[in-house]
């Protein structure tokens, strides 16, 4: 059993902090509730019948957009040690919890690293890398999924077989705005309707079909340095909206904001074979099932030499 899976049962997830160069532990968000919803028979029934439905996420979003939800902001910041000094707006300017959740950060707090041939992280998140063999991805925890599943079978994914799949898991305490990893252009964003399972490791370990069953949006980015990149935004429990800056497509710049989530979720980037060379620490820790903490705009690899 991998250390990542073992620790999940203890409600702690080990991860590698690239900023400190050491291992750390993330406490599963609302772990008691997540354990009940995905491990207890009654909780699993409640999740299937009610909580994974879009109506529940809409109701949750309605509450988080009300002025009364502002009282939850400061306790949340203190509990998760969020750096309020990085916010573009002061805490007292947020009119609701959701306004805080979809906050922008000061530009200098997330500088875009390297040159155009450097691959950057699209969001503050925990990164895990997987190989894609014969259109299937076999994660170390959770159920396997295919590239065809990701796109709702709306795209011929043959060109990405044998490539690399990067899964960026955004925690509820992370800033939920995400950027483009390179300059280029893309067509319209495609939506695949689905349910709203949690993307928590407890949900994945319980076998939830997050990557093939959750609501998601995908597009193919025609990038300058990395070729055709398949990007998929996966909605999650209580995520009522994925906001896209260019829903009908168009040109974009490296580091430009692509959109944001309204609560914790996941980004998936799929690269064709030979297009990227990831940093050694990310590859090494992913091989053991341990995620690496990355920040939006930070360099995580370079352009491959054998596209």
Compressed to H and E, one letter per element, the order equals: HEEHHHHHEEEEHEEEEHHEEEEEEEHEE
Largest sheet at a glance? Answer: 13 strands, mixed
What is the 3D form?
globular
Radius of gyration: 18 Å
Please state the structural category: alpha+beta
Note poorly predicted spans: 1-9
Helical segment tally?
10
What is the β-strand count?
A: 19
Mean pLDDT: 89
Distance between the termini: 35 Å
Helix share, percent = 10-25%
Beta-strand content: 25-35%
Fold and architecture overview:
With 307 residues, the protein is α+β, with helices and mostly antiparallel strands. The protein has a domain at 113-303. Helices cover 23% and strands 29% of the residues. The protein has ten helices and 19 strands. The strands form three sheets. Strands 1, 2, 4, 5, 6, 7, 9, 10, 11, 12, 14, 16 and 18 form a 13-stranded mixed beta sheet that branches. A three-stranded antiparallel beta sheet has the order 3-19-17. A three-stranded antiparallel beta sheet has the order 8-15-13, with no helix packed on it. Helix 2 crosses helix 3. It starts with a helix and ends with a strand.
């Amino acid at each position: 059993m991998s250390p990542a899976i073992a620790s999940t049962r203890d409600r702690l997830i080990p991860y590698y902090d690239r900023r400190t160069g050491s291992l750390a532990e993330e406490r599963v968000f609302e772990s008691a509730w997540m354990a009940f919803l995905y491990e207890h028979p009654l909780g699993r029934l409640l999740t299937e019948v009610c909580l994974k439905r879009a109506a529940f996420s809409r109701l949750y979003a309605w509450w988080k957009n009300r002025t009364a939800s502002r009282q939850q902001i400061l306790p949340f910041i203190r509990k998760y040690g969020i750096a309020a000094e990085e916010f573009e707006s002061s805490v007292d300017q947020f009119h609701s919890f959701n306004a805080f959740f979809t906050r922008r950060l000061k530009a200098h707090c997330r500088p875009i690293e390297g040159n155009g041939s450097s691959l950057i992280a699209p969001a503050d998140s925990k990164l895990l890398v997987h190989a894609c063999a014969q259109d299937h991805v076999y994660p170390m925890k959770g159920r396997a999924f295919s590239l065809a599943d990701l796109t709702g079978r709306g795209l011929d994914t043959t060109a990405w077989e044998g490539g690399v799949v990067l899964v960026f898991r955004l925690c509820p305490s992370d800033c939920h705005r995400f950027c483009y990893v390179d300059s280029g252009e893309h067509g319209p964003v495609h939506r695949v309707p689905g349910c709203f399972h949690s993307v928590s490791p407890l949900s994945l370990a319980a076998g939830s079909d997050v990557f093939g069953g959750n609501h998601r949006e995908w597009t193919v980015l025609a990038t300058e340095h990395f070729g055709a990149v398949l990007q998929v935004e996966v909605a999650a429990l209580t995520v009522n909206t994925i906001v896209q800056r260019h829903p009908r497509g168009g040109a974009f710049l490296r580091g430009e904001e692509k959109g944001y989530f309204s609560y914790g979720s996941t980004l998936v980037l799929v690269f064709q074979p030979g297009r990227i060379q990831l940093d050694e620490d990310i590859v090494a820790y992913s091989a053991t099932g341990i995620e690496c903490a990355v920040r939006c705009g930070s360099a995580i690899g370079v352009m491959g030499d054998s596209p």
